[in-house]
Amino acid sequence: MFIKMIFSLLRINELLGYSNEIKTYLSTANLEGLPIKPLADQFIVKHERALEASNRNPSSQYTQWLRGKDYRRDQSFIAFRNLMEACTHRSAERVVSGADRICRIIRAHGWSLYASGQKVQSAKMASLIKELDSEENQAVILSLKANDWYQEMLDDNTAYTQLLEEKEKLKANEVNIDTENVYKELRLVCDELFESITVLNKIASDPKYMEIADFCNQCTQKYITAGRIRKTKNENAENKTAETEA
Question: Last residue of some domain: 111, 140, 172?
Fold first, then answer.
């Protein structure tokens, strides 16, 4: 009757989005007189509690900001990397030699390091910048007239790092909230709701139960598909990174 939700595929924001769609539907559905109403009300309460828990931590607000900063440092890294690669196709031997030197350094730290997890990427960026900051390598970058591109990469990486440090400091001062248990309770009550409707419909079939199941199944399928697509993309990116760095 119900498609089994694979909660392990969902990020927290997706879990909250999924439960919010179901909550909205249940809130507007006429469940009066149905044995399932108390459990539906409990599901709504658990969703609201999970939503409140996710918003209580000020550090959680930094997540979206960090995504934006992370995107910018990805773009400036790619720009600098691609400029160096383009210089290897120039006619001047001096330019080709210098660009090839910088490209070899980048490859040593990860040609596609931006596809790594954020912590791994930060570590690789730090080691890359440390090597490129040497006097000899800076002279090469300057000779290639790429210092502005390099500086932009530095600035974007610094902006990300500083924002992450702000988030960690704020997080350290927050009151510890057992959000994981709150989310677990939401997942459990969701499963219990679906199982109870299935049992009740077998005992006394009701069109409203089928309507709830149809709506929930559409939501479940949508979020499972999105989760699987993201998982596949991440795995492909990791494989591509491993192949490039091999």
Answer: 172
